[in-house]
Amino acid sequence: MKTIKEEVINEIIINKSRFITILININNINEVNTKINEYKKIYKDATHYCTAYIINGYEKCDDDKEPSGTAGMPILNVLKKQNLTNVLCLVIRYFGGIKLGAGGLTRAYAKSASEAIKKGSIVNLVSGYQVTIELVYENIKDIDYLLKNLKINKTFSDKIIYEFLIKEKDFLKIENLLKQKSQIIKKEKILLAI
Hints:
It contains five helices and ten strands, in the order βββαββαβαβαββαβ.
């Protein structure tokens, strides 16, 4: 599976209608409405905000008052055809005064999504974990050595908390050593972009 590396914004004009497509890497369904609402504020006078997303096998699309099946489904089909996941595609339309008809709308929304994907960087996804561990100060050197190639969010108090993302195969190699030198508080399976 694949996803987009970073947010992409692309704009095309079709028969005087302006189509602004935003592709967003997203890992949680709870983030979807937040992101859509952010862009509704930025493009507050748009006519339509059509969406499609695929997150960990769950997919959904919305025509936002365009004729049924002419916006959300064509966008979703483009995402599926590109084998993308963990991505939200929002196509914002400013109506230009010329009606496109059902076929024209379907082609316009599909083209908008396709053009944005071409502009973005596509990365592969692998199985991994989001891990939180707790350790004592005397084990910092050992844990830092085990996790030397990872980006770690560290919190220091009476005990130390490390939060990091790691590929599944790499985690399995060090799991026993981590358990010897720390306490694994959280280990959540996720997909990682590489």
